[in-house]
Design a protein that fits this description.
The complex is a heterodimer. Chain A has helices at about 15-25, 35-40, 50-60, 65-75, 85-90, 185-200; strands at about 5-10, 30-35, 45, 80, 90-95, 105-110, 120-125, 135-140, 145, 150-155, 160-165, 170. Chain A is an alpha/beta fold. In chain A, a hairpin with a 2-residue loop joins strand 10 (about 150-155) and strand 11 (about 160-165). Helices cover about 45% and strands about 10% of the residues of chain B. An eight-stranded parallel β-sheet of chain B has the order 8-7-6-5-4-3-2-9. The termini of chain B are far apart. The chains are: A alpha/beta, B alpha/beta. At the A-B interface, helix 1, helix 3, strand 7 and strand 10 of A face strand 1, helix 1 and helix 12 of B. Strand 7 of chain A pairs antiparallel with strand 1 (about 10) of chain B, so a sheet runs across the interface.
Chain lengths: ~200, ~300
């Protein structure tokens, strides 16, 4: 059984367009998610980079935040990059006190942990199960300070995890949507397909 | 699994452009104090622009407008967690060096300040901090990109609360991009000549159908509807200057403009967020102003 899955990209603010292009390149059905009805129509959600405080405000204003939290608790697949990863964490250091916490994975994240824009960088990283390095862009990136026992670490930079998975949740502190390499997005698509076909059964 | 063999590079063009990508779909607000910066962040701004006077006041007070006091920029940086931009005068590469040393996240080489050089813009490749520059047309945008700008904003006419120039500049830039998209390869040489822009960038537009860096809109936006208009026309984010803190209720207006920028296609949401905001800034007609900032820059 291989029901066709639709992947949503949260389009409140940030680099959502680059994710859409990657998912299109991988021949998936994609839908921008701005409202509750958008969210109900997708089988998984990419939460892009951008400003986590801005997206947090907009999640609250649109009522999407509550629905998304409920869905995530029920195993809904999510993939967060940078700001998206911050929102998926169970706790945030150096965030705003009113910032939304989706608690999709057992990670503690420090916002802007790598510093300001002048400290932003690009470099090749090694990712478990990839034959060749992946070129990663870190833009005012968050640092993963702690991971729980159930979190699988796929890659680290200077001792800090940068690509992690727990169940149907995937998160990166870098921006796979900003390089032509599609391999990280492929991981998420397979997570969505696994989840989708197990639900259909 | 160790990545120690791979070296990190800072300040490269992809890293600069990367931050511009992160600012898409958002609102960048002009602020002149840490208190205003807090209001902007609370309202959901994706970045703030630190300057010493908003354009409406520069217009009113006259005189030479310069880079802000570093103390003020430090105060704003300390007040918020979102990216902080600051303005340098056109061609004033030393103001830009100072802003980079202060650690601002983006430098706006801005026509709103009094130009320091009447022939040259800053060589933006010499900096690790990304630059945004204004443009009234595609040729100007491509010249700025060839100098290293990581982000372009249509100029509009700052400090007027009048969206007409922003619309003109956006339509001009995006209209020419569309035309280049349907030009044949021989016509691209003529386009490059007419736009006074590098051929390679014109060819890139012909291939991709878009500007090589994100395109935001600035200059005269004052209402949620103005922001949504810019977005529907094809802007990828908006800058709002005097429009917020020269209005009756800055906090409410700022939040409404943020929501309008996200839900720019949804007229029902636009109607809801536009209600009850108090008076917008008064605004002025183009025939009432004696100085057009958009004409600064070359």
């Amino acid at each position: 059984m291989n029901a066709r899955a639709t992947i949503g990209v949260l389009a409140l603010q940030g680099a959502f367009d680059a994710h859409v292009q990657h998912l299109n390149a991988l021949d998936t059905d994609v839908r921008l998610v701005k409202t509750e009805s958008d969210l109900q129509a997708v089988n998984g959600l990419v939460i892009p980079g951008g400003e986590s405080t801005t997206m947090s405000n907009l999640l609250v204003a649109s009522g999407l935040g509550k629905t998304l939290t409920k869905k995530i608790d029920a195993g809904f697949p999510v993939f967060g990059t940078c700001a998206g990863m911050i929102m998926m964490a169970h706790s945030i250091i150096d965030g705003r006190p009113d910032q939304i916490v989706l608690n999709a994975m057992d990670i503690q994240v420090r916002r802007n942990g790598y510093g300001r824009q002048n400290d932003s960088f690009e470099q090749d990283i090694d990712i478990k199960s990839f034959d060749t390095p992946f070129h990663a862009l870190f833009i005012r990136a968050p640092i993963i300070e702690k991971v729980g026992d159930d979190v699988e670490v796929f890659s680290t930079v200077n001792g800090h995890p940068v690509l992690v998975r727990q169940g149907t949740a995937l998160a990166s502190s870098f921006h796979p949507e900003l390089v032509p390499d599609l391999r990280v997005h492929e991981i998420f698509i397979s997570i969505v397909h696994e989840s989708n076909s197990s639900q259909v059964r | 699994m160790s990545s120690s063999s791979h070296t990190a590079q800072v300040g490269s063009f992809p890293v600069k452009r990367g931050l511009a990508e992160m600012l898409k779909g958002g609102v960048i607000m002009d602020v002149v104090t840490p208190g205003q910066a807090k209001i902007a962040e609370d309202a959901g701004a994706c970045a703030v622009m630190a300057l010493e006077r908003v354009p409406a006041d520069i217009r009113k007070d006259g005189g030479v407008a310069r880079m802000s006091d570093p103390d003020m920029i430090e105060g704003i940086k300390a007040a918020v967690t979102i990216p902080v931009m600051a303005k340098a005068r056109i061609g004033h590469f030393v103001e830009a060096q100072i802003l980079q040393a202060l650690g601002v996240d983006f430098i706006d080489e801005s026509e709103v300040l009094t130009p320091a050089d009447e022939a040259h813009h800053i060589d933006k490749y010499k900096f690790t901090t990304p630059f945004v520059c204004g443009a009234t047309n595609l040729g100007e945008a491509l010249r700025r990109i060839s100098e290293g700008a990581a982000l372009i904003r249509s100029k509009g006419e700052a400090g007027t609360g009048n969206v007409v120039e922003a619309v003109r500049h956006l339509r001009s830039i995006l209209g020419d991009i569309k035309k280049i998209g349907s030009a044949d390869s021989a016509e691209l040489f003529e386009w490059a000549k007419r736009l006074q822009a590098p051929l390679s960038l014109v060819q890139e537009i012909a291939e991709t159908g878009k500007l090589p860096v994100p395109l935001f809109c600035a200059g005269g936006l004052a209402t949620p509807a103005d922001a949504a208009l810019a977005m529907q026309l094809g802007a990828e984010s908006v800058f709002v200057g005097s429009g917020i803190f020269k209005s009756d209720n800055p906090a409410a207006r700022a939040k409404a403009i943020v929501e309008a920028t996200t839900h720019y296609m949804d007229a029902k949401i636009l109607a809801k967020v536009s209600a009850g905001l108090g008076a917008p800034m008064t605004g002025i007609g183009m025939d009432e102003i004696n100085q057009r900032y958009a004409e600064r820059g070359w």
